[in-house]
Amino acid sequence: MKIPFFNYPDLFLKHKDSVLEVFNEVSSRGAFILQDDLLQFEKDLANFLEMEYVLGVANATDALQLLLKAGGVGGGDEVIFCSHTMIATASAIKFTGAKPVPVDAGADHLIDLDSIEAAITENTKAIMPTQLNGRIADMDKILQIADKYNLQVYEDSAQALGAKYKNRSAGSFGLGGCISFYPAKVLGCYGDGGAVLTNNKDIYQKVKLMRDHGRDETGNVSIWGFNSRLDNIQAAILNYFFKDYENVISRRRELSNLYAKNLLGIEKLKLPPSIADSPNNFDIYQNYEIEAQDRDALKDYLSENGVGTIIQWGGRAVHEFSDLGFNYSLPISEKIMRNSLLLPLNMSVTNEEVVYISELIRGFYNA
Q1: Domain with 177 in it
Q2: Is the domain of 236 the same as that of 255?
């Protein structure tokens, strides 16, 4: 078999006729920037998440930066985040003028709760957990820490659209969260795209201005802003895909169960939390991230047998980018990055392919 990690052409070809119809309809109206398709998408997404406000922006990195600036984070502040994340989490903090402070991951690959409290200083302004791989961290404890030290909470929920913790959606726990619509995300468009999620009216009003140069509906500019709007054509394409989103989540959870069933009992693997093991979490499985002994050899073996895999972020946690001035030792994050591997899990993957991949892995370990 030939199984790419993500079949990018299939994202278009499987929906070609419908997507071209959407493109032609929107383009024929000349509806390119901040039009009704975007407004409808924002409304539908807010209803799905049971949140007050959603704003489409150019990408999830912008969404985080806009959120932080709207919340007053800036020079002299420190923001705690988990180093087991993409560099974008830290860069969004950095470009507000604040200092990104990385802490270690826990066994679940999400932010380590004990590390948060140990990193708090008199300059700490906020905590930003990453809801990674479609799973939400223990937000009860994070909010307790935030309340204890009077800190803000923002969520890097770029990979977690539809994920829930105790029946609350990712992005709804603090002042706001973000979503990425990068093509390989669970809900992806045909380029970059993102959204700001918030229940805070003041945050919403500020971000709405900032995403469009600080302008209001009359053209008055009352604050300094950015150019970070979700293109209307991309919003219309997202509207099309979003109609089937609950089925997409259901399918991804089905595939994760199939991996778990077929990989269970391999001593040299650590699997992500399963659906059955996580009563408080509703995971959407943006990624299926395993930890594997002899990871690099396994990756090569799978490649030789036609299976594409990914090592997230080039195999380095954020704090390991020493050129950026980081000087930390975070052993759990480093261990995860030395051993972790993403297996194919998306709407192009079949049950038979998951079984084939699993059989290859079992054969590699003689399991």
Answers
A1: 8-242
A2: no
* Residue 3 domain flag: no
Does the pLDDT at position 269 exceed 90?
Answer: yes
Average pLDDT of the residues in 259-280: 94
Q: Is residue 19 part of a domain?
A: yes
Say how far apart CA 105 and CA 131 lie, in whole Å: 12
Give the separation between CA 74 and CA 65, rounded to whole angstroms: 10
- Residue 135, C-beta contacts closer than 8 angstroms, at least 6 positions apart: 108, 110, 160, 163, 272, 273, 278, 281, 283
Model-level pTM?
A: 0.96
Residue 3 CB neighbours (<10 A): 20
Q: Looking at the structure, do residues 161 and 75 belong to the same domain, yes or no?
A: yes
Q: Is residue 126 included in any domain, yes or no?
A: yes
Q: What residue type is 277 in one-letter code?
A: D
**Percent of the chain with pLDDT strictly greater than 90:** 99
| d(C-alpha 204, C-alpha 45), whole Å | 15
Q: Please, what's the b/e burial string for 132-143 (b: 16 or more CB within 10 A of its CB; e: otherwise)? A: bbbbbbbbeebe
